[in-house]
Design brief:
The complex is a heterodimer of chains A (148) and B (246).
Chain A (H helix, E strand, L loop, with lengths): L3 H4 L3 E4 L5 E11 L2 E8 L6 E4 L3 E4 L4 E3 L11 H7 L9 E4 L4 E10 L6 E6 L4 E3 L3 E4 L4 E3 L6
Parallel strand pairs in A: 1-6, 7-12
Antiparallel strand pairs in A: 1-2, 2-3, 3-4, 5-6, 7-8, 8-9, 9-10, 11-12
Chain B lengths: L3 E3 H4 L3 E4 L4 E11 L4 E8 L7 E7 L5 E2 L4 E3 L5 E3 L20 E4 L4 E11 L5 E9 L6 E5 L5 E2 L3 E4 L11 H28 L6 H5 L3 H10 L10 H14 L1
Parallel strand pairs in B: 2-7, 9-14
Antiparallel strand pairs in B: 1-10, 2-3, 3-4, 4-5, 5-8, 6-7, 9-10, 10-11, 11-12, 13-14
Helix pairs in contact in B: 4-5
Classes of the chains: A mainly beta (148), B alpha+beta (246).
Chain lengths: 148, 246
Amino acid sequence: MTSFRSTRGIPVMTKSSAEQVGAVKHFVVTDGRIEAVHVDGGKKHGQFVRWTDIAAFGDDAVVVADDDVLRDASNDRENRALRDELVMLDKRVLDDVGDEHGQVSDVTFDPIDGKIESLTIGDGDTLSGDRLLGVGGYAVMVAGPDER
Amino acid sequence: MSRLLRATEIIGLPVVTLNGDDVAEVRDVVYEPSRGGLIGFTLNKRGFFSGRLKQVLAIKSVRSVGRDAIVVDDHDAMTDKGDGKGPIGTASPDRDVIGVSVITDEGTRLGEVTDVVISLGKKPEAVGYELVSSDDGGRHVFVPLPEQVAISGDALMVPNAFDKFVRDDLTGFGGAIDAYREDHSSSHSARGRAKRSSGGAGQPEADASRSKSDLYAEARGLDISGRSSMTKAELVSALSEERGVR
């Protein structure tokens, strides 16, 4: 299972030169999918790799074709990610009714297409990724229980 | 059963968009006692000492009021006070219901309003009042919002019969609200019909099925003279006449 916690800090390597160009810091998640990977520890502080530029997302390393896929923040979401505003781990979970459900302890995703599969809340409850509505500075928003 | 919260507990709640961003926090709950309705919220910027926001949040732009946050679709849910979207911008001190006496129509003083009780969820509404009762050494009690409220800056007049729905705690109050509504659902639907049909000239048949206090309130709204000494039948015909003129 690939998750945010288990892949935090794994190296980002280039296929062309087998060099480490940085390490995974966090993820920019938009519309239930990883849009970009926030990479740190490279030549420049805080860069991004678009999900579509990733050759392989493995358990031990992220492989990209070349280091030219690393780029600076290029949109509002990435600029906010640079300021660590959109980090999902340890953020409060709020449903669309307005009730809180603890904090995100981990997020699992599909390493092929970057789709968010589930959110783990606190030390147990798991929510399907389909219920993820948005990730903001204040909360991770999820769709509330159906019966309400 | 409805989930309930005091209006003062809503103050300070963050206003959060579906994107998960907190765009404001509740400064005050705007409530119109004479219509028994929740109108919306005035807002503060987020964070300590950050001051008042010019924008307000009308209840119709709210997606849900929860225990921990007020949820809106996006930033555009908040509107400028002056853009004519409802009466929030004109909120005046005489709307303040806190501190007024609650008196039954038989002249018993039940107590003083200390808070308004709001039902949470996707259709938030004001459902009752919290009172400090005049007897029992200032016991806190909850009373449902009456069907027909007469209110001034001095007092809130309620039907005498409704003290059977008074509850000591907010948890039992949800059930009392349901029981109260059940009890009043028949008169509710009659009033609904009367409202829908009142666009025409006179509606004496519909009016006849309304309560006298309801008719009286409308007569007062139309400023019909001599209304306080009229019987119910006289109110019905006076209203019918008045509507014909307008």
